[in-house]
Specification:
elongated, four-stranded antiparallel beta sheet, 6 helices, 8 strands, alpha+beta
Length: about 210
């Protein structure tokens, strides 16, 4: 039970940080133009020539009242806000606001991944590498095998990477590997495939 609570607490904290930064929004150089290919690979749809309709997975809004969530989304300038039965929310926004949203979340996920090595939660994780769209994340450990506590590190990395990919209109798939300091692979997991159905539904909006 304690390890389950640890896993839930770590992931919830990571998602909460991502949500705060996402709602705040900040422009950078990470976002590109929205393409039709992106729209086909995610929960992002072309509502009009100048807007995008995005569905945020339910994990963003755990334990929050519908009224509070809708108020926060309205404050960010989103329109046509719909609370879905699965706990996700669908909103419409301008393309400029959408690109800012992608930028903000990219920076947040990168910062969270960069903060994992040698942190309080992951003291045996010594380094991390990832590609620009977080399709592959590699964690280096000082241990010769994956311990019970650090076994949850891929969960955090995988979930926040998948949630970014959805918002960015990318294929939702992140392979998280743990290697030792010689580079030998100790474990590898593909998210969201390894999640159970309830977890997957919370992370991946339908």
């Amino acid at each position: 039970m304690k390890m389950k609570q640890l896993r839930t607490g770590i992931v919830t904290a990571a998602v909460a940080c991502a949500l705060c930064a996402t709602m705040a929004g900040c422009a950078s150089q990470n976002a590109g133009n929205v393409t039709s290919e992106q729209d086909q690979n995610s929960n992002v749809e072309a509502a009009t020539i100048t807007t995008r309709t995005v569905t945020f997975p339910s994990m963003y809004f755990q334990d929050q009242a519908t009224e509070d969530v809708q108020a926060k989304l309205q404050e960010q300038g989103y329109s046509d806000i719909t609370a879905n039965e699965d706990g996700s929310y669908t909103v419409t926004m301008s393309i400029d606001k959408y690109n800012d949203l992608v930028d903000s979340m990219h920076d947040t996920v990168a910062n969270q991944l960069d903060g994992m090595p040698n942190s309080e939660n992951w003291q045996t994780i010594t380094a991390i590498q990832y590609d620009d769209q977080f399709f592959n994340v590699t964690l280096t450990t000082s241990s010769s095998q994956v311990g019970l506590r650090e076994a949850f590190a891929p969960l955090q990395a995988g979930i926040i990477s998948c949630m970014y990919q959805q918002i960015a209109g990318q294929p939702v798939k992140c392979t998280v590997s743990i290697v030792d300091e010689s580079g030998a692979e100790l474990s590898s997991s593909v998210y969201p495939d390894v999640l159970d159905s309830e977890q997957k539904d919370a992370v991946v909006a339908n």
